[in-house]
Amino acid sequence: MSLNILEECRDAGRIGISGHVRPDGDCVGACLGLWQYLSKCFPQAEVKIFLEQPADIYKEIKGFDEILSDFPDEAPFDVFFVLDCAADRLGDGEKYVQKAGKTINIDHHVSNQGSCGINVVRPDVGSTCEVLYDLMEPERLDREMAMAIYIGMIHDTGVFQYSNTTPATLEKAARLIGYGFDFPRLIQETFYQKTYVQAQIMGRTLMESIRFLEGACIVSAIDKKTMEFYHAEPKDLDGIVNQLRNIEGIECAIFMYQTGVLEYKVSMRSGEKVNVAEVASYFGGGGHARAAGCTLSGTFHDCVNNLSLHIEKQLKKWKSEHDKRDNSDF
Fold it and tell me: What are the tens digits of pLDDT across the range 171-193?
């Protein structure tokens, strides 16, 4: 559905914004971009952002210091925005949705069936920031907003290399960099650059990885003891699953890190032969066809065995369909 953001917020005195737990670049960019937009268009309104503390790589985005990560008790908001997820993935921020006068969900995840009074969910678009860009009035954008939206777009499209990048995505990115921010530095510092600790953990993860399903899949995991040894946090694990996927011959990459006793957070990346969103949804997770995640209980080997059953089915299905197609050519 179409959405006029400014019309929906015109009479609002208090507006809230939140995104999913462990916010990534798309989530942070969308939340800060929308905060800037609404603060500029409605200077008389109180606009607040609630997010788990994002990584410092995003601190250059205007509004970063306004983020509230302690989720204090608040009076009901007139309008509350849920960005880059369904409301049940907001963590402590979900309480604001339940009391808000009007709720608006903007997202691009195919697993999101809509969780608010107004829902704009576009799985055909590469990032929530791109969805948000389409909902903004172009004449109201400025350099700072453009930078926030651009960061979200590069993170969820892998700097425009994933299949969710469309000609329209690139056209919008071109218009955004026209505002004059230093986009090469943003790409380097927020997407590619790693700390020494991040590089150490990635190296160890790659060294200890295991291939299975005749080499089509690869998995690696980090336990809590290893995390403590490196003084690492979950945000230090960004990019590992993508690097596993980059290995030649890999159709599906799995990276897991331990979050509790017999509990793992799972991230998956894949090529055309495996729809990891379907795999993740079976275990209560979600995401995109080529990038998805979930939380699993059990030992490392339990988790791998459970995931591999569904991945193997998809690999066999893809092979069967392509064998039929090849045979029909004769």
Answer: 999 999 999 999 999 999 999 99
